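4.2 Preliminary Data

To establish feasibility before requesting continued support, the project team ran the inverse folding procedure on a target of 275 residues. The structure was first converted into the token representation described in Section 3, and no sequence information of any kind was made available to the design step. The complete token record follows.
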């Protein structure tokens, strides 16, 4: 049995190592390409290790592209969308999982039904509505239509249902109101799923390209995704290294956020917080 377990473990390590290489290779290629010159990228695209290393891509990123302003715009939008979703989605999930009220199951069923409708069907009516409201070319056109997501409510509700009802009842006996229960019991015990939702929503808002392209007209309001794409479509091939450097810079915030919150991300799907 011990020998068989060792063999199975070695096989698992081999498959995991292969998967790691497949996942890491594109990211490594992107990072290495950001340190190459345009000549190396165009004439020898199969080169992996740049010889010599050059920081011209990163220098050009700050000289040729208003990267700090693009970062500011993206953080405002992605941060606002994330904070609003975490607050309102957790409130809705708390109500649907721990508060009994007429029509609760019907409301939740309707929310699940909406998840089956392709989001692309709402683009035209949403744009028409926001255009008549005068919201086009404003941050609120990207923030407020996205401040609640039913899929996030669903994940939070499923997680909160595992919180023992005895804790809620004991808190009510001690005189705690629903807002106090939400803030003192539900939120601290739901940190794994809240962190997971925060990662997913921030990543979606950070990487969003179509929304800013549709609603933001002024270049000084562009997000980093839109700004880099517009820059890449207008520059000559001699500045290709700037685009690669921009892709690395775009990826780093998401990577750093995940590294800090990965413990909660794993707990949200393994339920270890209740074991």
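Position-by-position output of the design step:
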């Amino acid at each position: 049995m011990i020998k068989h377990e060792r063999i199975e473990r070695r096989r698992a390590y081999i498959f995991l190592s292969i998967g790691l290489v497949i996942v890491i290779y594109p990211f490594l290629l992107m990072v290495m390409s950001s340190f190459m010159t345009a000549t190396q990228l165009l004439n020898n695209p199969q080169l992996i290790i740049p010889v010599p290393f050059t920081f011209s891509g990163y220098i050009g990123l700050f000289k040729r592209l208003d990267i700090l302003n693009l970062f500011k715009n993206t953080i405002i939008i992605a941060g606002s969308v994330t904070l609003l979703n975490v607050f309102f989605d957790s409130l809705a999930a708390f109500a649907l999982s721990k508060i009994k009220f007429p029509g609760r199951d019907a409301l939740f069923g309707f929310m699940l039904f909406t998840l089956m409708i392709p989001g692309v069907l709402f683009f035209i009516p949403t744009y028409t509505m926001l255009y008549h409201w005068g919201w086009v070319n404003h941050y609120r056109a990207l923030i407020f239509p996205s401040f609640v997501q039913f899929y996030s409510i669903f994940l939070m509700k499923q997680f909160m249902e595992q919180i023992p009802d005895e804790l809620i009842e004991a808190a009510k006996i001690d005189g705690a109101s629903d807002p106090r229960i939400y803030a003192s019991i539900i939120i601290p015990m739901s940190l794994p799923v809240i962190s997971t939702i925060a990662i997913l929503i921030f990543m979606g808002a950070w990487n969003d390209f179509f929304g800013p392209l549709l609603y933001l007209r002024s270049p000084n309001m562009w997000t980093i995704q839109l700004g880099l794409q517009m820059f890449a479509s207008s520059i000559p091939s001699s500045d290709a290294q700037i685009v690669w450097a921009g892709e690395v810079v775009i990826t780093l915030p998401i990577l750093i956020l995940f590294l800090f919150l990965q413990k909660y991300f794993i707990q949200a799907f393994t339920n270890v917080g209740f074991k």
